[in-house]
Amino acid sequence: MNRLKNHIFWIQGPALIVIAAILWGMDGLLRRSLYSLPAVTIVFYEHLIGTIIILPFFLRIVKKETLNKKEWGAIVLVSFLSGVLGTLFFTLALKQINFISFSVVFLLQKLQPVFAITAGVLLLREKINKKFLLWAVLALAAAYFVTFPGGQINLQTGAGTITAALLALGAALAWGSSTAFSRSALLRHSNTLITGWRFILTTGLALIFVLGLRQSASLATIDAKQLGILTLIAISTGMVALWLYYRGLKFTQTKVATILELAFPLTGILIDLIVYKNTLLPSQYLAGAALIFIMQRISKLNREVDGRRYSAMVVAGYGRGKQIGSPTLNLAIPENFPHHHGIYAGRVSWKSNSHPAAIHYGPVPTFNNDRPTLEAFVLDQNITDPPQELELELLNFLRPIQKYENTAELREQISKDVREAKKILAER
């Protein structure tokens, strides 16, 4: 049962990213009747309504979770970049070319994964290996042929093409970098808290933009039908989609999440086929099938942490590991340790020797300890003379932190973790 729970828990991260992207792909169906409103007015109202809906859930947890300065900075940046600027840039880009499909705007928007992966590397120290790079390139190529029939891009979109291209590039940069900033805040906090703050802050920022762009009169022109559509957006493709996305992003690396988001353009093409009866070329069907396969392969890479090495001091622990037959090296948690709480397969090294290890990072709920700890169980020998300092490397996520009814259940799970860690490390 625990193995099944762990599998479902880990799969849900990538799966929720895909579900959110599918919802975003359906967003255009709802927004088509809102084009008479200024883009900044739409941004304000959809975030205001989303804030009202999530507020009761947000208030239940806001006093329990404290954000540090770095996390506050990340949320403010995401609210500004993704919540306001990204949407405005993309909408203004489309207006420059009269919303012409298959244009340079949609081409440059496809660069969003490039910016997201780069931000993940710089901000969260995510490592890009050859296996991921190959699948990512194939995913971008498939997304290109899904979006553009026969690979043809419409560059003849009038005098505003260059301006539209620059705005689209700005939107891709804003949205792409926001993925990494969002995940940095989600590592220690619930998706409800981060979604709530994102909507509250974006509502305030959008109102400032409404006033600054002298669009305040448009706030009073919204009619009942438009308000109903904006509410529908909030409970489907808006706030709820972002809540699902943040839940998935909490357990999904930035580099993986941004490729899975390519379900967005794939959904848009399917809507063209089903709703608007547009004919697809064979190349689009093939590219769509390839993209689905590639996304499935990339989601499996989510367990591979491939993080950098950390120097960690060995500190005194409670001795519980020794009592249950699994003595661990207790470590001081390094600064800028951008990993989700859980059990990992990894390695520890000192005196030029490397040892396989099962690594615990997070609270210990079985012993009612809410304070996160970092412990390494060396798998190839008993450590009688522990070092004062060692190097730590996390390689694969095994499972989330769980509470067990008694130490017998915990010992049984540790045995399973050890077997899985040995198997994974033997293959690396």
Characterization of this structure:
The protein folds into two domains: 12-303, no CATH class; 310-427, Riboflavin kinase-like (Elongation Factor Tu (Ef-tu), domain 3). Helices cover 58% and strands 11% of the residues. The chain contains 16 helices and six strands. Helix 3 runs antiparallel to helix 9 (191-212), helix 4 packs antiparallel against helix 8 and helix 6 (112-124) runs antiparallel to helix 12 (254-260). The protein starts with a helix and ends with a helix.
Jot down its keywords:
6 strands; 6-stranded antiparallel beta sheet; single chain; Elongation Factor Tu (Ef-tu), domain 3; alpha+beta; 16 helices; 428 residues
Can you give me a brief rundown of this structure?
With 428 residues, this protein is of the alpha+beta class.
How many strands in all? 6
Count of individual helical segments: 16
Overall body shape: globular
Regions with pLDDT < 50 over 5+ consecutive residues?
A: none
Give the number of domains: 2
Give the N-to-C terminal Cα separation.
28 Å
Q: Would you tell me the overall average pLDDT?
A: 88
Radius of gyration: 24 Å
Major sheet details: 6 strands, antiparallel
Helical percentage: 55-70%
Strand order of the largest sheet: 1-6-3-4-5-2
Secondary-structure element sequence? HHHHHHHHHHHHHHEHEEEEEH
Summing up helix and strand content along with how strands pair, one would put the structural category as alpha+beta
Beta-strand content bin:
5-15%
